[in-house]
Amino acid sequence: MKLWAGRFSKEIDQKTNDFNSSISFDSRMVREDIEGSMAHAEMLGTCGIIQKSESDAIIQGLKEILSDIESGKLLIDPNAEDIHTFVEGELTQRLGQTGKRLHTARSRNDQVALDIRLYLKKEIRCLQQQIRELIAVLCSKAEAYSDAVMPGYTHLQRAQPITFGHHLMAYAEMLLRDLDRLEGAYRHTDAMPLGSGALATTTYPIDRTVTARLLGFAEICQNSLDGVSDRDFCMELASALSIVMVHLSRFSEEIIMWCSWEFKFIELDDAFSTGSSIMPQKKNPDIAELVRGKSGRVFGDLMTLLTVMKGIALAYNKDMQEDKEAIFDAVDTVKMCLTAFTPMIDTMRVLPENMRRAAANGFINATDCADYLVKKGLPFRDAYKATGTLVALCIEKKTTLEELPLEEYRKICDSFDEGVYEAIALENCVNDRRILGGPASENVKAQAKRVRELLE
Fold first, then answer.
1. Comparing C-alpha atoms, which of 250, 269, 236, 121 is closest to residue 173?
2. Which residues are catalytic?
3. What's the predicted TM-score (pTM) here?
4. DSSP conformation class of 284
5. 191-192 and 157-163 as β-strands: parallel, antiparallel, unpaired?
6. Topology of domain 5-104, CATH
7. Which tens digits make up the pLDDT trace of 317-328?
8. Strand, helix or coil at 82?
9. CATH classification of 115-153+162-357 is 3.90.950.20, yes or no?
């Protein structure tokens, strides 16, 4: 029976019922719904709103229902309107009139707002743990390859020498910010709406602090209209997850490039690659490509939430039922991506010789050549022009700055001497950059150590 059946004289049309129903997706919150109901029942008994014996019976009945569901003894009825209706109906079947007392001083509006907050609090903590695991893998790889010289890029053009460890730690920093954003989303989720009622609280003498304490909430929603209609925490979480996916997608793009024969900086483990149905030589980075593709899905979930909420007058509206599928999908997608992505990075084989070979081409030590002249007393713009002329000469002669004879250097600028070759050696170019945040090997190791300490 529908919880709202008293007002209506006939049954709802079956197709309308199917359209209205949310049991297919909100049933995943059954544990949270029952936990919330147990806390509500205990508060009702504590405050004397129902008999303590009734409160105890309701709590025991709810515990048994949850146990039966988790053991498979009780199946959730797919024809129920929502998970709240199913649980209350089952409780009433078992306890009779006592079961009907559970919904005293409560509305489905504040009940569902409670359930989704309880559910997402747990999911945020799971997501944070997965991100920590990925960061730890990046730190390990960065330490192992803190001196593996590779080209750094701007505009996807070789720019200056860095190390593979330095590159990986850039993603570690992004993911640290993701952890912080998720913590902010958790903080805004950690407020209890129960007691807001449908929109205007209740005339019963409830004590919301009791329920909040039992459920582990840090605070209570301070305005009943906001308590039932707030979904900022869903939008904020979807936003944070969208940024996580931006970072995973950017990383995936580089993994895909690095796997190609044009780069060949890394090779993915066979367990995280696939082949072709027609080309026997192929080894495709499908996991990275799927992660890159699924970013659009999470962005869509965020846009769904923003669009649903943007035109809703206070307080609750049925539109808000659309929040759950979107945020559940965003959470599920990011968790699935991290589950595949982290071991893919952990098991990839790094090819530092190929990175070093790529770094030797493209004149990525040209800035260091100019800096060498500046340290000899030339203004930077003059040094820049002289070095640019040298690069053009090397291109014409099909050689590199390292191989160009000293006499050619001196034709361009007589400030050059043998010391230029030491200044433009790639390893020196990297390790002389000891400034905080720079790519020197010692910096990379220190950064990895700092990140590990932050994780702890």
1. 250
2. 155, 276
3. 0.91
4. B
5. unpaired
6. Fumarase C; Chain B, domain 1 (1.10.275)
7. 999 999 999 999
8. coil
9. no
